[in-house]
Amino acid sequence: MIKVYTSSVIDAPAEQVWARIRDFNGLPGWTPFVAESRIEGGLPSDKIGCVRNFRLKDGGMIREQLLTLSDYDYQCSYSILESPLGVDNYVATLKLTPVTDGNRTFAEWWAEFDCAPDREGQLSRDIGQGVFQAGFDSLKMLVRR
Amino acid sequence: MIRVTRSAIIDAPIERVWAILRDFNSHTAWHPVVAESVIENDEPADQVGCVRNFTLKDGNHIREQLLALSDNDYVSTYCILDATLPMQRYVATVQLKRVTDGDRTFWHWQSTFDTPRGREQEFADLVGKGVYEGGFEGLRAFLRRRPGAPAVRTAGSETMATQGMVVSRFGGPDVLEARPLEARFPAPGEVRVRHSAIGVNYIDVYIRKGEYRMIEPPAPIGMEAAGVVVDVGDGVTHLLPGDRVAYACAPPGAYVGVRTLPASQVVVLPDEIDDETAAAVMLKGMTAEYLLHRTHRLRGGETVLVHAAAGGVGLLLCQWAKALGARVIGTVSTDDKARVARAAGCAATIVGRDYRFAAALHDATGGRGADVIYDGLGQAAARENLEALAMCGHWICYGHASGPFDRLPVESLGQKSATFSSPVLFHYTAERAALTEMAQRTFEALRQGTIRLDIRHRYPLSAAAQAHRELESRSTVGPLILLP
Ligand SMILES: NC(=O)c1ccc[n+]([C@@H]2O[C@H](COP(=O)([O-])OP(=O)(O)OC[C@H]3O[C@@H](n4cnc5c(N)ncnc54)[C@H](OP(=O)(O)O)[C@@H]3O)[C@@H](O)[C@H]2O)c1
Fold it and tell me: How far, in Å, are B27, B49, B96, B130, B162 from residue B31 at the CA level?
């Protein structure tokens, strides 16, 4: 089991950042790498257990299931059901915490998963930088005051 | 119940911030409202359960207890035991998290407590603004004063070229030769230190002569130095590049410009202790600390005989023993040294070069003798030491500048129900917790003025042979240091 952890500071209040990201079907609206997304079975996107089915800009399809969602803690977690990444038991969590000093947001995004040992380094970089940090970077642009 | 939460981003790596915040006794260095902080009962500042006693700048007092500490999660939890402020059931948690984007630190500080009805807002502001927000600003200012080098580790394997004084073969002072050496990149658990001052100790002489087989020539000697951390190996959490540090430990190898050594024996220096003082006091001060508090717990009213009373360890023993309430009598070889020893607290001095002092000591003590003898002389003084000892006295032989014992004087101890000890500093400092305690108590003794150092003998590192010659010729007073 390996763990990838990425954290950043976003220059906007936590509730404002949360409004951007709490929609489990909203990846195309704030990440640079998702082309389109739908929730399977017509469920609401904040129903625990719902599955988002999205297509990456590079063509790959991913299915992820919402495991937890807390508006109180500004936190959600999800698992990967199917993907071209070659990962097993993948569970990720995205969490925001208010920074009272300057009314900003501390954003954390981490994942735990299994993969072939020789791919650990590459996958950690792809996920930590290519997905999580890239997501934060685009959030920083979107909420810029 | 009131809950107060504040958080901030600190523009420094988490290791740097945690090194400060994990120290339960660090607030006087960075927090703007804390005037004094003392850990009760001399416990280490990372001992869960330890109690710190704060005096605030407004005169209030607060006693707080450390409840939990995790280096793994960067969390410290503590509570107020009692305070001159009306705050009850106060429990606070400090938590740090790494901001991987930019290698910064997220600092979360939260507490819950009760206070008299009607004063909730007043105390929520006092804690949130005065203590927590004030603390964020205070720590930022502290980091600007002591930034440390960035804690990034470079590619990894590069060594640094340096100069050192090497024992080319066992023998006299002239076997010390200047040689180019290398300090390698620190392995896990190690630290690389750029020395600014190096302590000279009598043990260096024993090792140079081959009496203590702690090196195989050619090899550098030296057990003590102060300097600045260049870089640290994996797993080292208490040190960061840029920290001012000092150490006194085996293995030998301190007579060099830059050195890589185990980090567990290295301690961070308080701001007010300069590098030369640190290099002069680490080994000798911690030796005095354990000789007076551990090998023998010195009590007020005891009569103490200190040999080489104007020497490096001797002067510290005299000052500290006097402060503990003992009556100190010193032996020295010259009148000049006798004056120095008396200024350091000796009630009487016995002057001579021939190790004859028992008769004079009995005169000075009404025939009773010494309750404790601190003996760094060894063989030549052995018989007189037994004679000088009071009934049930404690003879502590911690060195043998006059030569090693032919055989230990055990049989004769029964004549006086005497106790004989043969202690070694490095056994007392082997555990990190004991080491920090001994170092802190030594620093505190310096701060309080209980011990004072007057460094009369400074040499360039390349003149180490000269330093040894003078130390062995009995002409030095107090500590000797080498400057690289
Ligand atoms: N066991 C430990 O943990 C430990 C730790 C540190 C030091 N020590 C020991 O403590 C003693 C003092 O160490 P130090 O570094 O502070 O040295 P020091 O006391 O500054 O120097 C040694 C002094 O010993 C006296 N001495 C008497 N006979 C001597 C002789 N034949 N040759 C040389 N000196 C003689 C001299 O003082 P007078 O001229 O006034 O007699 C001399 O100044 C040493 O024995 C050392 O090994 C032990």
Answer: 5, 22, 17, 10, 39
Q: Is 0.80 surpassed by the pTM of this model?
A: no
Q: Specify the CATH number for A2-142; select among 3.40.50.720, 3.40.30.10, 3.30.530.20, 3.40.50.150.
A: 3.30.530.20
Note the ipTM here: 0.92
Angle, CA of B24, B27 and B29, to the nearest 5°: 125
β pairing state of B104-114 and B88-99: antiparallel
Sort out which chain A residues have CB atoms less than 8 A from B136's CB and list them.
Answer: 101
B201 lines ligand 1 (CB under 6 A): yes
CATH assignment of B162-282+432-483, given 3.40.50.150, 3.40.630.30, 3.40.50.1370, 3.90.180.10? 3.90.180.10
Domain B2-145 class in CATH: alpha beta
- pLDDT tens per residue, range B146-155: 665 443 444 4
User: Could you identify the atom of ligand 1 that is nearest to the CA of residue B309?
Assistant: 40
Does the CB atom of residue B241 touch ligand 1 within 6 A?
no
B140: chain A residues, CB-CB within 8 Å: none
Q: Would you call B101 and A7 a contact, using CB atoms and an 8 Å cutoff?
A: yes
